[in-house]
TrEMBL record:
Protein name: Orotidine 5'-phosphate decarboxylase
The organism of origin for this protein: Catenovulum sediminis
Major enzyme class: lyase
Annotated HAMAP family: OMPdecase_type1_B
Binding residues for substrate: 13, 35, 62-71, 122, 183, 192, 212-213
CDD domains: OMP_decarboxylase_like
InterPro entries: Aldolase_TIM (IPR013785), OMPdecase (IPR014732), OMPdecase_AS (IPR018089), OMPdecase_bac (IPR047596), OMPdeCOase_dom (IPR001754), RibuloseP-bd_barrel (IPR011060)
Organismal lineage: Bacteria, Pseudomonadati, Pseudomonadota, Gammaproteobacteria, Alteromonadales
UniProt pathway: Pyrimidine metabolism; UMP biosynthesis via de novo pathway; UMP from orotate: step 2/2
Record's catalysed reaction(s): orotidine 5'-phosphate + H(+) = UMP + CO2
Length: 235
């Protein structure tokens, strides 16, 4: 593990485990990390995650836990016990929830997986945030929630690359920024609203680029991934 040359995390959002494995068989742990989210975990469970870690991939288990502190912490411990590299909780669950999860991981692992707080989903814009009754822009709410995540001792946040440079200035270089909503020039935007190209995201301060459909739905996913890595001068 930890031998990946690329900041790209490919989001495996498939409803068919064979299709996912077919894609994974074209990739090596040096090409990218892999993300398993709610759809695949619900369908195929811990065994699917283990099938990826056993091939040497760093796995981001994206289950975005959000519950009372004890429940969230125990769910994070269960996820960490699968041997994943990164997992996440919703920062809007609050400092106590995030801190309880972080503490339980630290009590149980010498090298716990990265614990990351989801701020404002990249599918949301200012209007969506304000419709929740929050009197801030999406960007301001991201900074606010990232502050709570840092206060709780989390390793970083999920945000859009549009907030990356402000977050690095505010919270420092070591606070990890995981950015979905990445779209190579000309790619379909889909349901994402706060987007950026891979190259621009990295130059803005993103540490990890979560990319799903532009890779997974491509005719030649490996070629698209290689082109992204090349655009970052990595391959
Ligand atoms: O936590 C995430 O990974 C996540 C947070 C967020 O704010 N936005 C977001 O799109 N994601 C995930 O990132 C992936 C993006 O996929 P594509 O839009 O297909 O590139 C999906 O698996 C989402 O579940």
């Amino acid at each position: 593990m930890q031998n990946c040359n690329s900041p790209v995390v490919v989001a495996l959002d498939f409803n068919d485990a064979q299709k996912a494995q077919q894609l994974v068989s074209q990739l090596t742990p040096a090409d990218c990390r892999l993300k398993v989210g709610k759809e695949m975990f619900t369908l195929f469970g811990p065994e699917f995650v283990k099938s990826l870690t056993s091939k040497g991939f760093d796995v981001f288990l994206d289950l975005k836990f959000h519950d009372i502190p004890a429940t969230t912490a125990k769910a994070c411990l269960a996820a960490a016990n699968l041997g994943v590299w990164m997992l996440n909780v919703h920062a809007s669950g609050g400092v106590n929830m995030m801190q309880t999860a972080k503490n339980l991981l630290q009590d149980n692992f010498q090298n716990p997986p990265l614990l990351i707080g989801v701020t404002v989903l990249t599918s949301m814009d200012d209007q969506d945030i304000q419709s929740l009754g929050i009197q801030r822009s999406a960007g301001e709410q991201v900074i606010h929630l990232a502050g709570l995540a840092q206060q709780a001792g989390l390793d970083g946040v999920v945000c859009s690359a549009q907030e990356a440079s402000a977050l690095k200035s505010e919270f420092g270089q070591d606070f990890k920024l995981v950015t979905p909503g990445i779209r190579p020039e000309g790619a379909d935007v889909g349901d994402q609203k706060r987007i950026m190209t891979p190259k621009k995201a990295i130059s803005s301060g993103s540490d990890y680029l979560v990319i799903g459909r532009p890779v997974t739905q491509a005719d030649n996913p490996k070629a698209v991934l290689d082109a992204i890595n090349q655009s970052l001068n990595l391959a």
